[in-house]
Amino acid sequence: MTKTQDLGISQLPNGNWCYRFTKTVDGKRVNRKGSKDEAGNPLKTKRAAAQAKAIAEMRFEASLNQKPEYRMTFGEVYMEYCEQGRSGKAYSTIKKQNSLWKNHLEEKFGSRYVDSISVAEVND
Fold first, then answer.
1. Torsions phi, psi of 113, nearest 5?
2. The model's pTM
3. Do residues 53 and 44 touch, judged by C-beta distance below 8 A?
4. pLDDT tens, 69-121?
5. Which residues contact 57 (CB under 8 A, 6 or more apart)?
6. 20, β-bridge pairs
């Protein structure tokens, strides 16, 4: 193996192998280490430790890029838009949006989650 693959891989006193790696997230160092593979079995070879380290690093990177899952109702989205997105709009535009919300949208979509509403429902 090359030296770059050896970095962070060491042998334990019992003969098994382990890995460790450090990543910087928002200016803070995050350390991870492990001595078992995905199935929970101990790492018996240096090559298995290198593969487990690569998988663990990829999973760590993927977890950083995931957005937190938060479901919002249509009413919550509209209230957030009212607070943050309508600044600078004309008074008549705001009045028209409020009228559309109260008379046509609130009753049917207000308490439903955004991801449960289909395009066909909105078009109808």
1. -70, 145
2. 0.53
3. no
4. 788 899 999 999 999 888 889 999 999 999 999 998 888 888 898 888 888 88
5. 21, 23
6. 33
